[in-house]
Design goal:
about 200 residues; alpha+beta; 4-stranded mixed sheet; two-stranded antiparallel ribbon; 7 helices; about 15% strand
Length: about 200
C-alpha cells in the first residue's frame, strides 16, 4: 500500500507522517484504525454503521419470513485415517429462536438513528448496536459489532463481553432470558467466526 510510511521506506518521500493528524509513522493500521482526525471526524463510525446496516437488513428479512426446513446434502468422506458422514440427529427440523414467537422487535443504534435499550426490560444507559426482543417469550438478544483491526479480534470480543456482563445480569434478574453476540468484522473486510455463528443461530 502506498502509505506515507511505505513511501518513506521506498525513498519516494522524506516523511512518514500522517497528513491528517501528523502521527510520525502513518502505516496502513494507523490509517484504518488509529488516526485521531479520522476518529473525531466519525470516519470509523461511518464504516461501522455501513456494516451494521447490512447485518440489520439481513436480520429484518429473517424476521419477515419462516424458512422451510431443508434436507442438507451432507458430504460423506472416508480415507485410511478418518471418515465423516451425516449426523444422526435431524437438527435441520429443530425450531430456531425466531420461529418461537411472532412479536419480535429489532432496534439498532447508529449515529443517524440513535436508539436506547428498551427500558421496560431493564434500566440501563448502555446502547447495544442491535437489540432483538420478544415480550411474549421475555427473551432478548444483544448484538454488539466491532469494526477494527483484524489482529485484535479476540481482545475486541473480550472487551465487549466484559462491558455487557452487568447488563446481562440485570436482565436476568428482571426475569428475562438474555444472550450477547459479539461480532467482529475487520476494517479490510475479513470477519471473525462470530459473524457466521450469529447467522447460524438465527437460521440465516
Amino acid at each position: 500500500a502506498h502509505t506515507p510510511a511505505n513511501m518513506k521506506l521506498w525513498k519516494y518521500s522524506n516523511t512518514a507522517k500522517c497528513p491528517l493528524c501528523g502521527w510520525k509513522n502513518c502505516n496502513l493500521k494507523h490509517i484504518l484504525t488509529g488516526c485521531r482526525v479520522a476518529l473525531e471526524g466519525k470516519r470509523y463510525n461511518w464504516r461501522h454503521d455501513q456494516v451494521l446496516r447490512v447485518i440489520c437488513s439481513t436480520l429484518l428479512e429473517r424476521l419477515k419470513t419462516t424458512p422451510q426446513p431443508k434436507k442438507k446434502n451432507w458430504l460423506v468422506f472416508k480415507s485410511k485415517e478418518s471418515s465423516y458422514k451425516a449426523p444422526k440427529n435431524n437438527w435441520e427440523r429443530e425450531k430456531r429462536p425466531l420461529d418461537l414467537a411472532k412479536d419480535w422487535v429489532l432496534l439498532h443504534d447508529e449515529d443517524e438513528t440513535k436508539k436506547g435499550f428498551p427500558q421496560h426490560i431493564t434500566n440501563t444507559p448502555l446502547r447495544p448496536d442491535i437489540v432483538v426482543y420478544s415480550d411474549s417469550l421475555k427473551t432478548v438478544y444483544l448484538i454488539e459489532l466491532t469494526c477494527g483491526d483484524e489482529s485484535n479480534f479476540e481482545s475486541q470480543r473480550a472487551r465487549k463481553e466484559s462491558r455487557y456482563e452487568q447488563l446481562l445480569a440485570d436482565i436476568s434478574a428482571a426475569g428475562w432470558t438474555a444472550q450477547l453476540f459479539t461480532v467482529e468484522v475487520g476494517c479490510r473486510g475479513l470477519y471473525h467466526h462470530t459473524l457466521p455463528h450469529l447467522f447460524n443461530f438465527f437460521n440465516i
